[in-house]
Each structure stands twice: as structure tokens, then as C-alpha cells.
């Protein structure tokens, strides 16, 4: 069950990767159209303003089509075969589902307590998906429908039909099965979702009133669950779903950014829900403190090597908001440090929230600055100065806390390993020949770094015969093995370029980094070649 949750969480991350660029783009356009910052350039009738209006409309694409992105993204992460065809089946089925809901509520809307004649948006509970007026199930409806399609696709895509029905095989058969499967679901949704919408409205009020403790608990869970891959289920409903505001914090914040940028009212008073999007603060202020502590406690002769690794990892966290390269450098050798990291991250967010800092601050410096600090600084200077003071104070706290624990517990963080701590493996003649065959497969692959890395990972995981399933999330190669005893030591994976490895029975996560899609593709090619040889 844990493995299934991890795969599902990874699949959810596929469309989420598109949000940082869209957020930066919209944030910059709002900045460039702000008259208080740009002066006469921001004249609505001028060419400058009109140009950025066009760019802004393009930037809103991702935010305006969030459900469709999740419908298409989940099959990419969860389908076991023919991913592109699974995406097509999911898209067709999702549109069919919304046409069903539209027809049901057009005919029987009053019976379900829905005034389907209302305009979409606002408190009507209605929206428009690809031109279809329907209930606003947001990403929840998209995830449910797409997941059902993936299950049916994985089970029926290869089903052989009689020759005279051959035209209905493959994707067509999957869509046919889905058509009849979602009809009762559309009826159930038309009846139950309006009730859920009322419940969500009540939940919004509860979470908004949970104040500092709620922000602390949210941020702690978002960070502490990263090793399991289940942190997606914590922040997803808040940032991209309707947990606290309709459409999610990311979309709501961008929609109201112009209003906040021209008002001197407290940000916390205008948008208290924004406290649930401060988890990016640990990426900007916490990670540098951790990196400095690791550097200071490294052995003198290893500091130069360690600094090169830490600088790149820290910049990745601060600028892009990707923390795994540095978090996984200490997670595996000292889980206690990761728990301390989660505690400090939650405490930082809670203190910042108590002093009035809110917004959409879950990413890195570039994303946060362009959609928060820069466009809003004029009217919210004191809030942001206070936030930075708190953040820098926590950088110091992080440094001293981690330095103390690393030394006190004698943690083998990078640069503190024993000089003789190297994994030694004796290779047989068969091992040597197999390795040479992989290296010499063809000249293209020999020069393909992703292929080489995938080959090393496959070998360390026990070979093709030991792989039952493979998928990936944003930074991790997720593999299910047949026999976990065949897996090589962790250092073998690190020597191949992995940041670390998580083992949970037969469910294995290899921490690759942002190049994981390319590595997975080469990994699957190797598996395919192996199966062909077996046949």
C-alpha cells in the first residue's frame, strides 16, 4: 500500500513541475504592469503594457487549465505501458465525464440542489472545462477520473478481441470500458459533490482560524514526509486544490496579486490562508545553514571537495526550490537531523506567519521574489524586512543546531567519512563481460551519460530479472524489485551518481535528481532489450 501511495504521489508531481515557470512569468508581467514600479511605462494604452498583457495571458495557461494538466499528467506517472495512449484515453474520458455531469444537471439540477443556470465561478460551485459547463471538482475530479482510466488502461490495453472487433482494441477498448464505468460516477458526483462543496467551505473557515499552530503542523508534515514521497498529499490540496481557497493558494494568490500590490493593508488580514504556503522559507534560509554546518564540520583535507558539492546543492535549493540533493546527503546517515530540519522549518514558517508574512512562498528565491517580494515591496516593506530578519536568524539557528548535532552524534556527513570507507566489490568474469557488452552496445549509448547511469543503477538493483516495475517522480527513480536481497550497498548507487537510496521492502527509490525522466527512459530501454533477448 505504501508503494502505491508513493507512485501516486510521484504521478501528481508531473504537472506540478509546470507551475514554477508559469508563476514566475505571471509574477513578472504583473510587476512590469505595475504603475507604482514602472511609472509611465505601465500606461494601459501604451505598447509596453499591451505587450506584457499578451505575455500574461499566455502565462495563465497552466493555472487556468489545472484539472486538464492533472488528467494528462497522472497517466505519464502511473501507466505501465503505452503512456501516450493512456494520456489520450484519460483526456477523452475526462471530457466525457464532464459532458455527463452537464447533461445530468441540465435535466435534474434542481433535484440535486444545484441551480445550473448560474454563471460559472464565484460561489456557484460551477466551472467550465474545455468549454463544458460542469461542477467544479477541481484537481480531485481530475485525479479520480484519470486514476480510473489508468487502472482500466493497465488491465485492458493489451486485451485481444475477436478479429472482426479488432478495430475496437487498444485505446478504443479502454475508452469504451471507461465510458460505461464513469456514467454512474457522474451521477454520484452530481448528487454528492454539492454536499462536499459545502463541507469544504466550512473546512476553509476552520483552517483559516487554526492560526499559528495550523501553519506549524502543515509545514512540519510537508517536510517530514519527503522521504516517503507522501508530502504531495499534504501540500497538494492546499497549493493546487480547494483545501483553503477555491482553486488553490497558487492560483488565488496570482489572481489577487495586483490588489495586494496596491494596498497598504496587512497581507495577513487580506489573505490569512497564505500562511499555508510558507514552506519555501526553509529552502532559502534553512538549507544554507545546513550546508555551512556540513562544510565547517568536514575534515580540512576534504573541505575543498565538499564545498563544490554543497555550493551547487545549496544554489539548487535557494534559487530553484529543489532541496533533495542536500537533504538526502544527511537523511540516510542521520534521520534525526532530518527530523530537526522539519521541526525548524515548521517553526520558521509559524514565526513568520505570526509576524504577518503570508503569500505563495513554496518555491525557490526566483519564484518567490517575482510573485511576492518585488511586486509587493512598496506597500509591505516592513513585513518583508521582518520576514528576512526572522529567516536569517533561523539560518544561524540551523547552522549552530546542525553543527552541534553533527559533532555530538559524530554523524558521517560528506567530508567526515572514514578514509577507508569505500565499497569494494569483486567482479567475476561474467560481470566483466556483461559490463563490457553494455558499454559497447553502440557508440551512441557509450556517449549517453543517462544510459551509463541507468546501466549502473540496473546492475546495482540486481539486473533486469529483478525488476518488477519502474516509474519516477520529480527527482526519484521508483522501482519495485523481486528480491530485495540482490540490491547492492548504498555506496554502489552513490558511485553511479545517485544522491541516495530509500528502501522499503521491495519498494526502492533511487534519488537521481532532475534528470530522472531521461534516466528512466534509458532504464526502461535496457529492460526492453533484456526482455527481447529472453524471448
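Sequence proposed for the structure above (535 residues):
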Amino acid at each position: 500500500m505504501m508503494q502505491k501511495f508513493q507512485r501516486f504521489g510521484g504521478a501528481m508531481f508531473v504537472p506540478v513541475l509546470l507551475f514554477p515557470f508559469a508563476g514566475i512569468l505571471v509574477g513578472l508581467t504583473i510587476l512590469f504592469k505595475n504603475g507604482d514600479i514602472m511609472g509611465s511605462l505601465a500606461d494601459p494604452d501604451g505598447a509596453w503594457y499591451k505587450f506584457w498583457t499578451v505575455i500574461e495571458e499566455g502565462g495563465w495557461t497552466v493555472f487556468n487549465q489545472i484539472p486538464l494538466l492533472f488528467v494528462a499528467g497522472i497517466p505519464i506517472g502511473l501507466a505501465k505501458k503505452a503512456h501516450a495512449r493512456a494520456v489520450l484515453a484519460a483526456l477523452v474520458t475526462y471530457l466525457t465525464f464532464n459532458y455527463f455531469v452537464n447533461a445530468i444537471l441540465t435535466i435534474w439540477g434542481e433535484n440535486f440542489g444545484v441551480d445550473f443556470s448560474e454563471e460559472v465561478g464565484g460561489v456557484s460551485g460551477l466551472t467550465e472545462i474545455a468549454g463544458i459547463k460542469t461542477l467544479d471538482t477541481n484537481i480531485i475530479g481530475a485525479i479520480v477520473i484519470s486514476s480510473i482510466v489508468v487502472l482500466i488502461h493497465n488491465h485492458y490495453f493489451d486485451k485481444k478481441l475477436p478479429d472482426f472487433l479488432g478495430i475496437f482494441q487498444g485505446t478504443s477498448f479502454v475508452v469504451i470500458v471507461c465510458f460505461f464505468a464513469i456514467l454512474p460516477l457522474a451521477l454520484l458526483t452530481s448528487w454528492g459533490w454539492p454536499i462536499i462543496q459545502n463541507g469544504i467551505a466550512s473546512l476553509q473557515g476552520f483552517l483559516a482560524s487554526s492560526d499559528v499552530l495550523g501553519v506549524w503542523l502543515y509545514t512540519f508534515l510537508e517536510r517530514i514526509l519527503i522521504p516517503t514521497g507522501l508530502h504531495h498529499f499534504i501540500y497538494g490540496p492546499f497549493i493546487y486544490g480547494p483545501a483553503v481557497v477555491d482553486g488553490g493558494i497558487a492560483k488565488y494568490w496570482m489572481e489577487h496579486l495586483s490588489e495586494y500590490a496596491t494596498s497598504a493593508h496587512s497581507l495577513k488580514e487580506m489573505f490569512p490562508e497564505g500562511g499555508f504556503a510558507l514552506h519555501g522559507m526553509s529552502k532559502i534560509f534553512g538549507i544554507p545553514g545546513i550546508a555551512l554546518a556540513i562544510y565547517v564540520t568536514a575534515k580540512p583535507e576534504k573541505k575543498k571537495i565538499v564545498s563544490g558539492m554543497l555550493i551547487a546543492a545549496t544554489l539548487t535549493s535557494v534559487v530553484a526550490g529543489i532541496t533533495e540533493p542536500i537533504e538526502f546527503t544527511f537523511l540516510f546517515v542521520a534521520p534525526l537531523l532530518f527530523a530537526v530540519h522539519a521541526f525548524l522549518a515548521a517553526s520558521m514558517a509559524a514565526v513568520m506567519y505570526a509576524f504577518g508574512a503570508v503569500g505563495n512562498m513554496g518555491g525557490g528565491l526566483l519564484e518567490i521574489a517575482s510573485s511576492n517580494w518585488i511586486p509587493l515591496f512598496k506597500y509591505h516593506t516592513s513585513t518583508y524586512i521582518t520576514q528576512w530578519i526572522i529567516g536569517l536568524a533561523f539560518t544561524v539557528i540551523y547552522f549552530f543546531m546542525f553543527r552541534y548535532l553533527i559533532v555530538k552524534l559524530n554523524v558521517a556527513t560528506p567530508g567526515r567519512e572514514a578514509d577507508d570507507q569505500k565499497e569494494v566489490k569483486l567482479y567475476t568474469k561474467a560481470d566483466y563481460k556483461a559490463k563490457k557488452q553494455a558499454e559497447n552496445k553502440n557508440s551512441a549509448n557509450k556517449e549517453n551519460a543517462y544510459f551509463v547511469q541507468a546501466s549502473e543503477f540496473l546492475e546495482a538493483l540486481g539486473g533486469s530479472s529483478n525488476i518488477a516495475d519502474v516509474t519516477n517522480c520529480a527527482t526519484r527513480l521508483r522501482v519495485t524489485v523481486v528480491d530485495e536481497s540482490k540490491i547492492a550497498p548504498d555506496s554502489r548507487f552513490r558511485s553511479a551518481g545517485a544522491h541516495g537510496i530509500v528502501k522499503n521492502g521491495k519498494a526502492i527509490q533511487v534519488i537521481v535528481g532532475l534528470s530522472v525522466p531521461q534516466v528512466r527512459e534509458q532504464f526502461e530501454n535496457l529492460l526492453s532489450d533484456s526482455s527481447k533477448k529472453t524471448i
